[in-house]
Amino acid sequence: MSASEVFTVDMEESPPYTLAGRSTVNKNCIPKDAVERASSFVSEWTPFGLVASYFVFSTCLYMYCSDSLIAIFWFIYMCTNFYIAGVTVLEAFMSITPCREARKIVTLAEEKGWLFPTPHHQLLILDVLIVAYLPNEKDIIIDRALYALEQIDYPRDKIRVNILYNTPKRIEPLETELHQLKEQYLHARIIKVPNSTSKADNLNYFLTLDTGSDLIAIYDCDHYPHPNGPRWAVERFIADQEIDIVQGRCVVFNSEDTFLTSMIAVEFDKIYAVSHPGRATMWGFGLFCGSNGYWRTSLLRELEMDGDMLTEDIDSALRAFSRGCKTVHDLNVTSYELAPTTFPAFWKQRLRWAQGWTQASIKHIKMVYDKPQDPLHPNYNRGFTARFGVLSLLLIREASYYLVTQYTCLVLSFMIVKFPTSGEELGKLIYFQYPVSQWLFIISVICLIATLWITNQVKSEFVTRRMVILFSIQYPFYLVLSATIGLYGHARQIVKYSSWNPTARK
């Protein structure tokens, strides 16, 4: 999934203006930095207060509701959970065909000695962009740059590996080592982006340069592209001239570092190998996800990245779709990335994604009802299936945060008012409070098992069956955590929270 990296820089405090060596600051006035710290504190903790109040108020409200009203709420939440589970399993089944096709293509290529259809001299010119923020990614940038320059299997006269980086202060000898790569590798281009504070700034700066490329590939700094990944992507563009974007599969390779990384690795397999290709098949549109994505250069230059969006990748993907551009998910275009190893890093990353998705949903929900107007695609007409897919992706997904957490608050109120004394009573309390719940719950569980079974069939080499089983066991808690993060993102958007720190990479 990637998200916009908006980076904050600590600036030296400026001394107060002086006259003849005396400070002119009124000692009775509140220092400016104290006001800023107080404002930052309020901005940081207000979302927490909103979310905590939401849970407390909802739980207390259910404690005082009548039994008939509780029955109505229970039925609504079970039905909506059933809908979400049903859509998820449908997307999973829809992903089976793309997975089979991807395996078939690999088998054919292997039988031909990895001889690709297009001769080298007919390949498209490719710009590979590796976007980095040096103070945060200084420990990995040289390694990733050397890997891309040496391991990507693509004709050197048809590819340029561009290292785009920004940094608030010079870092030596690292920057000198980076720029020396141009002397050793003729297809390397090192660009220090001036006045940049985000990934969007880096990309937009590059888009002002005339590099003569046909395609642009975007990678975050922590990625290892598969050596054949770029070739697979370019072959898709050549085979189908209507394709505008190819989004590859992202795989977590540090799955064994911690329990958290193992769960994220399974989650990424579920998202990139099941949900994304399944959704594209089911609803008729795909999405650029921030990294390991390939664009036609002309389209990306025209759209650019919106630096005001926290997930500028999702925003650009939805803007492209709104114009009728075609995005496909290719499971053979693989890239390997790092997952956060600590919960605080995971929490910061997912809050950024949650708020970014909220921004994108508010901005693009109009696609459900508006009429496409694009001179490049005058005959494009967004059909009912695609419109309902947008509704499901942007509105229903955002609303599901409230449905899941309200169900959780309802169960909490039951446990407070009539605490179960046995495991049987607990099970009946949570799932079978009303007769209809039995069928809705059983069908939802079957849908979940089917989805995770399909995920197990397409899991990456870094994910074990044991990891999938553990992920399945803790999946209900994962849903509650994801919904809570979604609510937190809404709260941050309400208070216009914008202070973000990049995820540490080592």
Walk me through what this model shows.
The protein has 506 residues and is an alpha/beta fold. It has a domain at 123-389: Alpha-Beta Complex (Spore Coat Polysaccharide Biosynthesis Protein SpsA, Chain A). It has helices spanning 32-63, 67-94, 96-111, 134-137, 141-151, 174-184, 199-207, 229-239, 259-283, 297-303, 312-322, 343-364, 384-417, 423-431, 435-457, 465-473, 475-494, and strands at 18-19, 22-23, 126-133, 159-166, 188-192, 215-220, 224-225, 243-252, 293-296, 326-337. The chain has an eight-stranded mixed sheet with strand order 5-4-3-6-9-8-10-7, sandwiched between helices. Helix 9 (259-283) packs across helix 15. The radius of gyration is 25 Å and the shape is globular. The chain starts with 17 loop residues before the first strand and ends in a 12-residue tail after the last helix. It is a multi-pass membrane protein. Keywords: Glycosyltransferase, Membrane, Transferase, Transmembrane, Transmembrane helix. Residues 216-451 form the Glycosyltransferase 2-like domain. One of its GO terms (molecular function) is glycosyltransferase activity.
